[in-house]
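Researcher: Let's do a round of design. I'm pasting the structure tokens now; please hold your answer until I've finished.
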């Protein structure tokens, strides 16, 4: 009996390693369908009618051309990851090769451009640009020598300064962050009331000011300060009630009764986080709050989608932003807060990916 089970489990293991070894097909195919604008072509303002590869191609390439068979191969593979739903029509004469049609499943719908021009599509594209792809074969280098991240080894400088010199990369980065931030901020504003009564709010690393714009829609009396690097705020659009301030969070942060930041601490080392948080502490009055929205790792490792997304994001940070920047557990964040002087800490699990961390002075 033992031998039979061993043969069966060995078979499964060999199959699993084949899937893992070919896993690059998944993100790169996702990248391909975004570049081909397939989600918008299928969605058509909510129709989401199942279409064949030929029909999809005629929409994305109205002047003709393209290979529908190759497109179908990509659509079919992504169906197995819940991006598309496949509809088989076997009633024709030639039942040997049934007609396959595709509509968007829930995951695919995240890639559809909404009324505000946003989606998760730029986030997918941003992750697969040439400069980032060059870093991935060097992940092992983060183990051998963590003094610089694989991105630096591949491109000669850090990701943020690299983006700063490439307007198209910076633009895509901002669009990617907006596409991710807006649905998350809706969840936060519905499920978290820690911004009630705040008069002056600084968003550290606020980029184009999307988060503040949404906060002010709910709390119109807040005075918003969008604080980011001078070259970032120089391109930020004018928003009523928001002042754009350029500076360096490692030097000082504008005074306020609450400080907001999203996905900032994750991309820095423990020492750098402590320095940022100490500057937050100095900028706040007693009772003032630092509200940080960050991915928080669970204690246990399991194969749930949430744990996988968080741990995969952790490797992304290690590869692209800081070899010792990382996703942290709730307790690690609490300890960072204490080291920076914050005596009170609470965590709110509102969104599946980001957690709201409240540090109070």
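Researcher: That's everything. Go ahead.
Model: Designed sequence:
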């Amino acid at each position: 009996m033992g031998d039979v089970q061993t043969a069966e489990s060995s078979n499964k293991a060999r199959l699993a390693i084949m899937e893992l070894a070919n896993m690059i097909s998944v993100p790169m195919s996702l990248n391909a369908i975004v570049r081909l604008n397939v989600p918008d072509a299928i969605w058509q303002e909510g129709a989401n009618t199942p279409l064949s590869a030929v029909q999809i191609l005629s929409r994305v390439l109205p002047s003709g051309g393209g290979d529908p068979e190759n497109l179908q191969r990509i659509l079919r593979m992504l169906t197995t990851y819940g991006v598309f739903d496949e509809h088989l029509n076997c009633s024709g004469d030639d039942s040997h090769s049934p007609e396959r049609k595709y509509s968007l499943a829930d995951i695919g719908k995240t890639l559809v451009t909404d009324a505000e021009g946003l989606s998760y599509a730029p986030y997918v594209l941003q992750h697969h640009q040439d400069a980032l792809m060059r870093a991935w074969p060097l992940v092992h280098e983060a183990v051998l020598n963590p003094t610089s991240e694989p991105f630096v080894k591949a491109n000669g400088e850090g990701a943020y300064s690299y983006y700063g010199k490439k307007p198209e990369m910076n633009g895509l980065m901002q669009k990617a962050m907006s596409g991710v931030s807006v649905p998350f901020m809706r969840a936060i504003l519905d499920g978290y009331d820690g911004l009630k009564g705040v008069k002056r709010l600084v968003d550290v690393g606020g980029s184009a000011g999307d988060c503040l714009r949404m906060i002010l829609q709910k709390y119109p009396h807040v005075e918003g300060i969008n604080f980011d690097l001078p070259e970032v705020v120089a391109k930020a659009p004018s928003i009523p009630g928001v002042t754009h301030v350029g500076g360096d969070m490692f030097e000082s942060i504008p005074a306020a009764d609450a400080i907001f930041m999203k996905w900032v601490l994750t991309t820095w080392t423990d020492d750098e986080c402590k320095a940022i948080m100490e500057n937050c502490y100095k900028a706040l009055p007693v009772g003032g709050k630092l509200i940080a929205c960050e991915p928080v790792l669970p204690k246990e490792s399991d194969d749930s989608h949430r744990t996988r997304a968080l741990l995969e994001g952790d490797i992304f940070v290690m590869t692209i932003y800081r070899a010792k920047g990382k996703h942290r557990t709730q307790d690690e964040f609490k300890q960072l807060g204490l080291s920076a002087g914050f005596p009170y800490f609470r965590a709110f699990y509102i969104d599946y990916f980001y957690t709201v961390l409240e540090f109070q002075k």
